[in-house]
Amino acid sequence: MGSKAEAIEQYLLKIIELSDDHIVELRRAELSYQFSCVPSQINYVLNTRFTTAQGYVVESRRGGGGYLRIVKVPIEREDDLIKMLADKSKQDLSEQEAKGLVIRLVEEGFFSKTEGRLMLGVLSGGVLARAKEEKDLLRMDLMRAMVLTKLREK
Amino acid sequence: MGSKAEAIEQYLLKIIELSDDHIVELRRAELSYQFSCVPSQINYVLNTRFTTAQGYVVESRRGGGGYLRIVKVPIEREDDLIKMLADKSKQDLSEQEAKGLVIRLVEEGFFSKTEGRLMLGVLSGGVLARAKEEKDLLRMDLMRAMVLTKLREK
DNA sequence: ATTATAAAGTCAAATAAGGTCAGAGGTGGA
DNA sequence: TCCACCTCTGACCTTATTTGACTTTATAAT
C-alpha cells in the first residue's frame, strides 16, 4: 500500500498537469480533509516533493482567504545547472534528490528519456550499496560527471 | 534438504513468473512472517540470489509505506558481451575493460553514442576515486546496472 | 483599536518501515 | 574429522511518514 504522502503527491501532480498554465491553487484544510490526514501533512508533502530543486515554487497565504499555490517553473537550464554543480558546499545527493533532479532534467529536455533512465539506473536502488557510508557522496560525483559529460557534448 | 533461503527464492521466482510484467512488490516484514524467519533473511536471499549479475534489479523504500520491489530483466541473448555480465565469478571491471566494453556495445548499436559517452563519463577517470580499493567492483556494479536498465527498456 | 475567527506554518515525537553487520549454527566434501 | 562455505539470527541503525500541540499571520466584526 503506497503511502498517503504519495497519493497526495500524485493528486497534485495530476491537477498541475491538467491546469493549462502549470499553476494550481488550493486550500490546505480542504485537501487534508479529502485525504483524511492532518493539515500539516500537506506541508510535509510540499516540503519533500515540491522543492525548488524539483522545479516548483510554492507560495501561500495565511489567515482568512488563505491559500496554497504551487507553480511549476522552467529553469534557465545550463546556468542553473552549472551553478548547482559549482556549489562545492553541496557534496552529497540522496536518492530522492537524485530522482527528482533527473526527472526534471529530462522534462527540460537536457537529457533524453533513455539517458534519464540510464542515470536513474545507476543513481538509485542497491547499485551503490558497496559504497556504504559514502553512498551519497558518490552519487553526487556520479551526477556531476554525467551532467558535465552532457554539457561538453552540447 | 532445501534451506529456507532456497524456499524463499523459489517462492519469489514463482510469483515473479506469474506476474505479467516480471515485477513484484512486497513487504519485507510480511514475507519474513510467512516464512517464519527474521526480516534480515529476506535481505540475505536478495543479496545472494537476486543480484544484477543474475539479471535482477531490486529497489526498496523505508519508512511508512515502505516496500521491496524485484524486477527481472530477461537476458536471453547470444551476445557474449552481455553474457559476460551475467558471469557471476567476474566481479570487477578495470577502467580499460570498461572502455573497451562500452565502445563495442556502442558499435553494436546496443547503446547510442550519447549513452556511451555518458557511461564513459561515469566509468572512467577520477569519478570513482571515493570508492578506493572497491573501485573496480563498483565499476562492475555500475556497468551491470546500466546494461540491465537498457535491456529493460528494449 | 480591539477582539474574534480563519487560515497556514513549525517542530518534535510517535510510528512504520527497511538495512547492516557480525557472529552463531549447519552441512557437505576432502 | 575438519575446514570452507553457506545459512540464520538478533541487536542496532537509518530513513520516511504521520500526528498533534503550539505559533503566526491575515481578515472580519465590534
Structure overview:
2 copies of one chain form a homodimer. By secondary structure, chain A is mainly alpha-helical. Helix content of chain A is 56%, strand content 10%. The first copy, chain A, folds into 2 domains: 4-72, Phenylalanyl-tRNA Synthetase, Chain B, domain 1; 77-153, no CATH class. Chain A has helices at 4-18, 28-34, 39-49, 77-86, 95-107, 113-123, 135-153; strands at 23-26, 56-61, 67-72. In chain A, strands 1-3-2 form a 3-stranded antiparallel β-sheet. In chain A, α5 packs antiparallel against α6 (113-123). The longest helix of chain A has 19 residues, at 135-153. Chain A is globular and about 50 Å long. The N and C termini of chain A lie far apart (42 Å). The interface between A and B is medium-sized, with 34 and 35 residues.
